[in-house]
Amino acid sequence: MSKPFTPLTQLPNFDPLRMPVLGVDDHLPAVPAERLRPDALRERFQRTLEWTPDIVRERSFAQREPALAAVLIGIVMRDEPTVLLTQRTTHLSTHSGQIAFPGGKVDSTDRDVVETALRESEEEVGLAPDRVQVLGTITEYVTGTAFIVTPVVGLIQAEHTLTPNPHEVASVFEVPLAFLMNPAYHRRHALEAEGRRREWFSMPYQDGVEQRFIWGATAGMIRNFYRFLMA
Fold this sequence. Notes:
It is a single chain. The chain is an alpha+beta fold. About 20% of the residues lie in helices and about 30% in strands. It is built from 4 helices and 12 strands; from the N terminus they run βαββββαββββαβββα.
């Protein structure tokens, strides 16, 4: 068995905020505003269209059996739709301090990945499942840690309450869907390390006085959702 590669965050002197930007995809069109409305999103999931995700599998750096997981791409139905995201606490063993969708590992008692995404969202941020209308799923995303993640897309009622789990979640915030679905804000990065090239996206968002640095698997799944909506 080949030697596993070191995770990016464990490489010496690696700081995702300081990595050079190789390019910005402002040559690609933004998803039209009319496709971001709740009715249009519902219709998109009812149609079968060919589309190709940009990222299906990250470079592997884990020598363990793959594990199934699911996350919720939750779109809050405000006048301008937003996407619900979390900032993970810094003491967690994996992806500490990073921005992520609510979600986690599939339990043996879960009926399917939809139940996983809804259960984990309730456990992490206190989002009641009856506040979410599930639309469907998009292509699985395999992380370098050998998680096979299914993004579950759902509409969240604007009238909802959240009670974040302080052990897992440092903060919960929303980013405009139109911002995330505009490739002019999609930045490309790459790094040669341990004889292999690692590539990833970032989508920094200025949230008032705080910058929310979205990158890695979360940015990759957002990019795939962009491709899905543009199909």
